[in-house]
Design goal:
The protein has 112 residues and is an all-beta fold. The chain is built from no helices and 11 strands. 0% of the residues lie in helices and 51% in strands. A hairpin with a 6-residue loop joins β5 and β6. It is globular, with a radius of gyration of 13 Å.
Length: 112
């Protein structure tokens, strides 16, 4: 059974930081591109960042460049999202995705 278990979300003040983790199992993690996708309340899901398998090239949506960093540890079957300088508009449920597989998501709330 494929599982993508995201964790690390919570309430943080504007300007703060969080580190999300996603533990994967049930598939060959090291051969999949991994992505983070978020869905804000009342909005459609939007892609945030991706990391390729192999060389680990990374890609970001323009609105998070310089603030969010995606990384992976293939030995631990885990992908991370370091989130700095958080803004209220970053409030969303964050999902890790290994197409076609989606995890359950973790809620990030940025509020004072």
């Amino acid at each position: 059974e494929v599982q993508l278990q995201a964790s690390g979300g919570g309430l943080v003040q504007p300007g703060g930081s969080l580190r999300l983790s996603c533990a994967a199992s049930g598939f060959t993690f090291g051969t999949y591109d991994m992505n983070w996708v978020r869905q804000a309340p009342g909005k459609e899901p939007e892609w945030v960042a991706g990391i390729k398998y192999g060389y680990g090239n990374t890609y970001y949506a323009d609105y998070v460049k310089g603030r969010l960093t995606i990384s992976r540890d293939n030995a631990k079957n885990t992908v991370y999202l370091q989130m700095n300088s958080l803004r209220s508009e970053d409030t969303a449920v964050y999902y890790c995705v290994a197409m076609p597989y989606w995890g359950q998501g973790t809620l990030v709330t940025v509020s004072s």
